[in-house]
Amino acid sequence: MRKTLLLAMLLPLFSLAQNRNAEPRKKKDYLVTLTTGFGAMRFILHDETPKHKANFIRLVDSSYYDGLLFHRIIEKFMIQGGDPDSRTAVAGQALGNGDIGYLVPAELVPNLFHKRGALGAARDDRPDKASSAVQFYIVQGKTWNDDDLQKQIDRARARGSSRTFTDEQKQVYKTIGGTPHLDGNYTVFGQVIDGLAVIDSIAKQPRNAKDRPLTDIKMKMKGEWVKKKKITKKYGYLYKS
Fold this sequence. Notes:
Layout: H1 2-26, E1 28-36, E2 39-45, H2 50-61, E3 70-74, E4 78-81, E5 103-104, E6 118-121, E7 131-132, E8 136-139, H3 146-158, H4 167-175, E9 188-194, H5 196-203, E10 220-227, H6 228-235
Antiparallel strand pairs: 1-2, 1-10, 2-9, 3-4, 4-8, 5-7, 6-8, 6-9
């Protein structure tokens, strides 16, 4: 009876302690800093894609990406990296097929789209659109006029996308830019909020016929939990309430 009574008294305290530990985390977000020889960019990971966010945090915290290459770059489109084979790749070696033995289920969220600076998960042609656990790309893209944007939307649908594009998203593609034909086919799970110019610098580097940069572009990543108010104040990123 005494043990039961003691447990009943302690449970509310345990619950309160857990809530106190959880509350500060709700006020923070995981800020990733990706550094290359062209400078640093910073990005956040979307809560709407929890599987991708948790997986990426685990990889960054384990220093997985340190020393890997941006192995595929296409100007006005995107820059791609994260292939584990790139860590020891020799000059000219074909890259892009490396993995670590598991996939992340697709998390296709209509309000997360391929605007400039979007962080997306690479994948192969699987019908379930599951993502590579490690390879990612960052959108550079370009701006589109109405006619070309509609062609991009039609291209996305031809590739299996069933999503619709809001007027706001169309306006972003016409003013800020991006790669709309990827929408609904690849998971967007983050957004660059600082250092967009670094993407431009990397994307314009000389490359070979397989889009690998002629000079290796190594990356290093670190992540830290930062107060959302501080992220907004320093980088201008606005969180939805």
